[in-house]
Amino acid sequence: MSRPRRYSEVSGFVLAGGASRRMGVDKANLLLGCESMAGRQARLLGSVCRAVAIIGPHAKLAGTEVPVYEDEIPGMGPLGGIHAGLRRARTEFSLFLSCDMPRMEGRFLRYLCEQALASRAAATLPPPGGKGRYPLCAVLRRSVLPLLRSHLASGRNRVGRFFASLPRRTVSKAEFARAGFKARIFYNVNTPEDYRQVR
To answer: May I ask the CATH class of domain 7-198?
Structure first.
C-alpha cells in the first residue's frame, strides 16, 4: 500500500496565536491525549506538507518540534498570522489550519491541496459554514501578499472579507459530501464545554 502523498509545493502553518478569551486558558496548549492541540495540528500538517511551522507567541509555544514564528503585525488576529506565514513560506502555496479544529482529517487537507494545485487559484477554501463564514482551513498563494498587506494597513483584519476579495476556488457542500467528508471535521473548540466534548 502506497504512503499518502506529501506536497513539497505546499508549506503548512498552524495558526495558534489567538487570545482564547472564551476558553479562559491558551487553547493551543490544551492536551488531547499526550499532545497539545497545536502539536496535533502540526503533526497532521506534517503528514501532508514537507515544511511545517506554527504561527504564535514563542513564550507560549516553547518546546514544540517545529519552528515557531511570531506575528510581524501584532493585534490583527488570524489574518496577521496568515501574513506572517506567507512572509516565511518558501513555496508558492501555503496551507493554513487553525489550532482549535481537533477533528480535522489529513484526507481533507490533501483534497484541499489537490484542488489548489489543480486550479492555481489565489485561495482554495472549504465549504462556508453558518452565516457564510469559512472554517479557518485554507490554501493561499504567495501572490496575495500585497493585497493582504493593504488590508492590514487599513485595519481590515476580517479573514472572511479578505477571502471574499480574492479569486478563489471554493469546495461546494455537494462536492464535499460526494467526496465522503463530514462537517464534524470543522468542529471548533472555543469554550471549556467544547473541550470536554472533544476529549
So the answer is: alpha beta
- Per-residue pLDDT band for 131 (boundaries 50, 70, 90) equals confident
What is the overall mean pLDDT for the chain? 92
The rounded distance, in Å, linking the Cα atoms of 136 and 25 is 20
What does the DSSP assignment read for 72-109?
Answer: SSTT-HHHHHHHHHHHH--SSEEEEEETT-TT--HHHH
| Dihedral class, residue 4 (left if φ above 0, else alpha if ψ from -120 to 50, else beta) | beta
As beta bridge partners, residue 15 has 55, 98
CA end-to-end span of the chain, whole Å? 31
Please answer whether residues 161 and 111 qualify as being in contact, where contact means their C-beta atoms are separated by less than 8 angstroms: no
Q: Which residues have C-beta within 8 Å of that of residue 155, sequence separation ≥ 6?
A: none
Q: Is the pLDDT of residue 1 over 60?
A: no
Per residue in 88-109, pLDDT (tens digit) is 999 999 999 999 999 999 999 9
